[in-house]
C-alpha cells in the first residue's frame, strides 16, 4: 500500500502507536474493551487527513462499527469523524483518487476472493475488480 500510494505522489505516515481496531473484542461482545482500543485509535488518527486500511474487516470496524460502538457516548462525534475519513485501500484508490491502474503485472493465474466485511459491510464488490482488470499480463482474468 505504501509503495503504491507513494508512487502516486502521496505522503504516507504510519503511526507506530496504532494498534488493533478492536474488532475481536467487539465481535465477542466485549464492547467496553473494544471501546478502549477504539479510543486509542481515535487519538492516534485524530489529526490524519485520511486513513487508508488494507483490511476490509478493520475498515468495516472503523467505518461502520465505531459509530455504533460509540452511539450515545460522549465520543460519538469523534468516532463518526474517524469513520468518515477512513477507507479500505481499493475503495480509496478507485472511488476517492479515481485510480484504476497502479502499474501491476501478474503473468500467472489468480483467483480473487471477496473479503466478507469488505463486501457485506462496506459494499466493495467493484473497486478491487476494477483494479484487477488493469493488471498487465492478465490473460487469466475472466
Give the termini distance in whole angstroms: 25 Å
Low-confidence stretches: none
Structural class: mainly alpha
Radius of gyration over all CA atoms, rounded? 16 Å
User: What order do the SSEs take from the amino end to the carboxyl end, as H and E?
Assistant: HHHEHHEHHH
> DSSP helix count?
8
**Biggest sheet: strands side by side, in what order?**
1-2
Short summary:
With 142 residues, this protein is mainly alpha-helical. It has 8 helices and 2 strands, in the order αααβααβααα.
Description:
This protein has 8 helices and 2 strands, in the order H-H-H-E-H-H-E-H-H-H. 48% of the residues lie in helices and 4% in strands. The protein has helices at 2-7, 23-27, 31-44, 56-69, 76-84, 89-96, 116-120, 126-132; strands spanning 51-53, 86-88. The longest helix is centred in the N-terminal third of the chain and has 14 residues, at 31-44. The chain has a two-stranded parallel ribbon with strand order 1-2. The chain has a domain at 2-98. Helix 6 crosses helix 8 (126-132). It starts with a helix and ends in a 10-residue tail after the last helix. By secondary structure, it is mostly helical. It is globular, with a radius of gyration of 16 Å.
Outline the fold blueprint:
Blueprint: H1 2-7, H2 23-27, H3 31-44, E1 51-53, H4 56-69, H5 76-84, E2 86-88, H6 89-96, H7 116-120, H8 126-132
Parallel strand pairs: 1-2
Helix pairs in contact: 4-5, 6-8
Amino acid at each position: 500500500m505504501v509503495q503504491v500510494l507513494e508512487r502516486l505522489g502521496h505522503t504516507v505516515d504510519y503511526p507506530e502507536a496504532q494498534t488493533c481496531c478492536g474488532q475481536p473484542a467487539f465481535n465477542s461482545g466485549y464492547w467496553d474493551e473494544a471501546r478502549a482500543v477504539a479510543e486509542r485509535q481515535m487519538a492516534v488518527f485524530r489529526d490524519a487527513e485520511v486513513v487508508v486500511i488494507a483490511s476490509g474487516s478493520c475498515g468495516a470496524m472503523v467505518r461502520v462499527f465505531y459509530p455504533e460502538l460509540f452511539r450515545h457516548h460522549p465520543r460519538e462525534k469523534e468516532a463518526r469523524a474517524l469513520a468518515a475519513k477512513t477507507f479500505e485501500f481499493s475503495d480509496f484508490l478507485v472511488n476517492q483518487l479515481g485510480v484504476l491502474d497502479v502499474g501491476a503485472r501478474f503473468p500467472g493465474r489468480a483467483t480473487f476472493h471477496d473479503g466478507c466485511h469488505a463486501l457485506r459491510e462496506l459494499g466493495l464488490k467493484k473497486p478491487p475488480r476494477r483494479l484487477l482488470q488493469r493488471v498487465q499480463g492478465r490473460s487469466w482474468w475472466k
